[in-house]
């Protein structure tokens, strides 16, 4: 005759009763919770790996970027961005007195949008110094005498009141002949 | 000075927020959560005051904020003087005679989720994992991940980010838009019209956007004496760090300390959020506001079940106001959240008018700035001149889905969609969604963002490439919390009730390892 083992319950009901009475609840798989714990752990681990990877790179825990690119990250990649960086380099190299505005001249027939973008980027980069942009042949917003530096693409004619300080592939930098 | 003065400035802002919430009987939670909500309340007060001043043509000054703080401090002390024991004047809004609930004060308990807890040990009923071989392996592998270790790792990551941001991590939008506005505010005390109008030099700087982020940066710059960019980057760490106490608070009671700590660590280790936060982007404020909103929406329900809901309603209104004052899309979140809260109130039979009135707070706070910018003709750049037809929008759907798919199957994003699927499975198996209203809020907000992609006048591919990760990032902590709520729902067990083997609900695994 079949006899259950002394420690083996004879029925499911009895088993449950037995187990609950003696220890804790009988456990059963809970797949969503198991899956959630695995996914949560994986998410955390991947995040830690990515954060750690970033932190050991030059733009991570110890930022290593060249000072001239400090504020122009991302700009050199685009054509109009390169113009901004070039203009900024010139302004930085020939730093006019604080507060003296800068004028940028664009070709009269050029597409306006890229130049507006160049204007915006340059204006925010050198703020609080004022930067104005005008099309060739258009009078600037301020008295021309008030501008300390004047940037124009190569090939644009400039009157004798301005002397050329530097000529680059993107811009030519001028200064008033009587100084800023 | 560059460290001490801004630290004191943050302390002053915290004090302002603490006073606001104390007077409103809405301070609540663990110490870190209270610090977070105080911080949010302080920024909301600062931003409301600053944006209103600018919209009315005035110049902002730090003494305005200190004057407001002093007035609130006097009101607070006066109230304490006349009610020295409880610090409350008469019945709080949460215990009105016609209120459904008539329980303990807001700061004591608001039901299941409202009990402050600093105990890191999992409660006796904490759900754990069970019998299968895989479960045993997983349990063994994760058993040593105690809550203290996990939270310690979170703190360590925050420390790393602080160190990194201390060298100025500002990224493009952070520098060119938000910090620019903060610098203009520092120099001018306002945003002059020529800096806002499209013909001015800054048309790309989203001149119509609200100013919560720049005004916090301005506050720090003013106290430091100069517009140090590093302060804006460090402010981003603060926004980011504020997520952690909310994730913990959302999950500690229902899912147990270990899951809550793991989710907290996962959030603080999620690099896409940290990158944009320390980069000075405004998106982190929306992320925080959405997480806080779903947490308080849930507490509303718990409040009706076991205590006054007023504190949760006020904090929900606070987070929605933060969203409205941080970014344009935050206004959509504020409206969606308000609709959800009103619906929840109606569903619960809430009769107090004050409950519904508080959800007008985001609109009231934003109104002066909104009217001012619309009067200037400023409109959201993303939708300016949009003339898309329905057919055009439909053709964009595959492009958006492809970008979304590409994002969600890259790096640390990968587990998230699967976690949501598991949550859906758990909810369907149970036959109901634990956080239906909160899912609705997150889904509606995501739909609004998708709507912008569908209708934008900007080049879609460029816009997706430059924004989709931070837009999806808005919902990540909220989605994680909602998913875990579905998997570890707030049951009677988590309210501290003792189950027997015969009353154990099917969806609650017993604690065999407790």
Short account of what is shown:
By secondary structure, chain A is an alpha/beta fold. Chain A contains four helices and five strands, in the order H-H-H-E-H-E-E-E-E.
What do these coordinates show?
The complex is a heterodimer of chains A (180) and B (514). Chain A has four helices and five strands. In chain A, strands 2-1-3-5-4 form a five-stranded mixed beta sheet, covered by helices on one side. Chain A has two domains: 1-64, no CATH class; 68-176. Chain A has helices at 12-22, 31-55, 79-93, 112-126; strands at residues 102-106, 131-135, 149-152, 162-167, 172-176. By secondary structure, chain A is of the alpha/beta class. Chain B has 514 residues and is mainly alpha-helical. Chain B has a domain at 4-89 and 155-393. Chain B has 22 helices and no strands. Chain B has helices at residues 4-23, 31-55, 62-82, 133-142, 147-165, 172-188, 193-196, 212-224, 229-241, 243-255, 257-268, 271-278, 283-306, 310-326, 328-347, 353-357, 361-375, 390-408, 415-430, 436-455, 460-473, 476-487. The longest helix of chain B is centred in the first third of the chain and has 25 residues, at 31-55. In chain B, 53% of the residues are buried. Residues 86-130 and 492-514 of chain B have low confidence and may be disordered. At the A-B interface, helix 2, helix 4 and strand 2 of A face helix 4, helix 5, helix 6, helix 11 and helix 12 of B.
């Amino acid at each position: 005759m079949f006899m259950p083992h002394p420690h083996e319950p004879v029925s499911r009901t009895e088993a449950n009763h037995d187990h609950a009475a003696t220890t804790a609840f009988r456990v059963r798989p809970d797949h969503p919770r198991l899956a959630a714990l695995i996914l949560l752990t994986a998410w955390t681990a991947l995040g830690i790996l990515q954060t750690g990877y970033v932190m050991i790179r030059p733009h991570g825990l110890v930022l290593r970027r060249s000072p001239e690119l400090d504020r122009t990250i991302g700009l050199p990649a685009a054509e109009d961005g390169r113009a901004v960086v070039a203009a900024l380099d010139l302004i930085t190299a020939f730093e006019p007195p604080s507060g003296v505005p800068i004028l940028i001249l664009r070709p009269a027939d050029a597409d306006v949008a890229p130049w507006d973008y160049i204007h915006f980027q340059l204006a925010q980069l050198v703020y609080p110094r004022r930067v104005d942009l005008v099309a060739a042949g258009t009078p600037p917003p301020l008295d021309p005498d008030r501008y300390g530096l004047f940037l124009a693409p190569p090939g644009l004619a400039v009157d004798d009141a301005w002397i050329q300080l530097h000529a680059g592939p993107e811009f030519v930098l001028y200064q008033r002949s009587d100084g800023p | 000075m560059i460290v001490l003065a801004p630290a004191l400035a943050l302390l002053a802002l915290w004090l302002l927020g603490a006073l606001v919430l104390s007077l409103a009987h809405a301070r609540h939670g663990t110490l870190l959560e209270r610090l977070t909500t105080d911080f949010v309340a302080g920024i909301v007060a600062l931003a409301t005051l600053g944006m209103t001043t600018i919209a009315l043509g005035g110049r902002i000054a730090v003494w305005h904020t200190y004057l407001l703080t002093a007035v609130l401090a006097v009101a607070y002390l006066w109230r304490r003087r006349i009610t020295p024991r409880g610090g409350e004047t008469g019945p709080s809004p949460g215990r009105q005679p016609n209120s459904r609930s008539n329980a303990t004060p807001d700061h004591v308990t608001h039901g299941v989720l409202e009990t402050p807890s600093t105990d890191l040990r999992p409660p006796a009923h904490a759900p754990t994992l069970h019998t299968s071989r895989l479960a045993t392996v997983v349990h063994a592998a994760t058993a040593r991940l105690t809550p203290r270790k996990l939270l310690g790792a979170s703190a360590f990551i925050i420390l790393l980010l602080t160190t990194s941001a201390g060298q100025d991590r500002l990224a493009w939008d952070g520098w060119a838009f938000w910090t620019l506005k903060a610098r203009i505010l520092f120099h001018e005390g306002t945003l002059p019209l020529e800096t806002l109008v499209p013909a001015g030099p800054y048309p790309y700087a989203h001149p119509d956007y609200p100013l919560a982020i720049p005004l916090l940066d301005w506050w720090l710059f003013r106290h430091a004496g100069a517009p140090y960019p590093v302060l804006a980057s460090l402010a981003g760490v603060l926004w980011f760090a504020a997520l952690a106490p909310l994730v913990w608070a959302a999950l500690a009671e229902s899912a147990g300390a270990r899951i809550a700590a793991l989710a907290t660590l996962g959030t603080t280790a999620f690099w896409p959020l940290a990158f944009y936060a320390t980069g000075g982007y405004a998106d982190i404020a929306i992320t925080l506001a959405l997480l806080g909103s779903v947490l308080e929406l849930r507490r509303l329900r718990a409040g009706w079940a076991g205590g006054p809901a007023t504190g949760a309603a006020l904090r929900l209104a606070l987070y929605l106001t933060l969203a409205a004052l941080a970014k344009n899309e935050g206004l959509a979140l504020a409206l969606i959240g308000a609709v959800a809260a009103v619906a929840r109130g109606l569903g619960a039979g809430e009769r107090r008018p004050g409950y519904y009135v508080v959800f007008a707070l985001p609109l009231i706070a934003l109104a002066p700035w909104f009217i001012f910018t619309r009067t200037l003709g400023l409109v959201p750049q993303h939708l300016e001149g949009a003339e898309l037809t329905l057919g055009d929008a439909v053709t964009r759907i595959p492009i958006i889905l492809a970008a979304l798919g590409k994002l969600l199957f890259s790096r640390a994003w990968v587990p998230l969609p699967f976690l949501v699927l598991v949550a859906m499975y758990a909810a369907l198996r149970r036959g109901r969604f634990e956080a239906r209203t909160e899912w609705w809020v997150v889904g509606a907000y995501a739909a609004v963002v998708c709507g912008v992609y569908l209708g934008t006048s900007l080049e879609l591919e460029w816009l997706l490439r430059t924004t989709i990760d931070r837009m999806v990032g808005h919902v990540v902590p909220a989605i994680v919390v909602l998913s875990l709520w579905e998997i570890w729902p707030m049951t009677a067990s988590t309210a501290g009730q003792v189950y027997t083997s015969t009353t154990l609900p099917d969806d609650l695994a017993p604690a065999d390892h407790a």
